[in-house]
């Protein structure tokens, strides 16, 4: 078994403009499947 992400290519640093976590968030969506993407779209369209 390998570590998660171990087989992914190296990501350049410019993809992480500010990797430090913020002190709080309005919304956290876990998962990018159909339901997670639909939720993100709904929240962005109607509340953001």
Give the topology.
Blueprint: H1 34-47
How does this structure look, described?
- With 48 residues, this protein is mostly helical.
- It contains 1 helix and no strands.
- The mean pLDDT is 81.
Short description:
Helix content is 29%, strand content 0%. The chain is mostly helical. The radius of gyration is 15 Å and the shape is extended.
Give the oligomeric state.
Answer: single chain
Residue stretches low in confidence (pLDDT < 50, at least 5 long) are none
Content of β-strand: under 5%
The rounded Rg comes to 15 Å
Average pLDDT, all residues: 81
InterPro entries: FAD/NAD-bd_sf
Organism: Gordonia amarae NBRC 15530
Protein name: Sarcosine oxidase beta subunit
Q: What structural keywords apply?
A:
48 residues, mainly alpha, extended, FAD/NAD-bd_sf, Sarcosine oxidase beta subunit
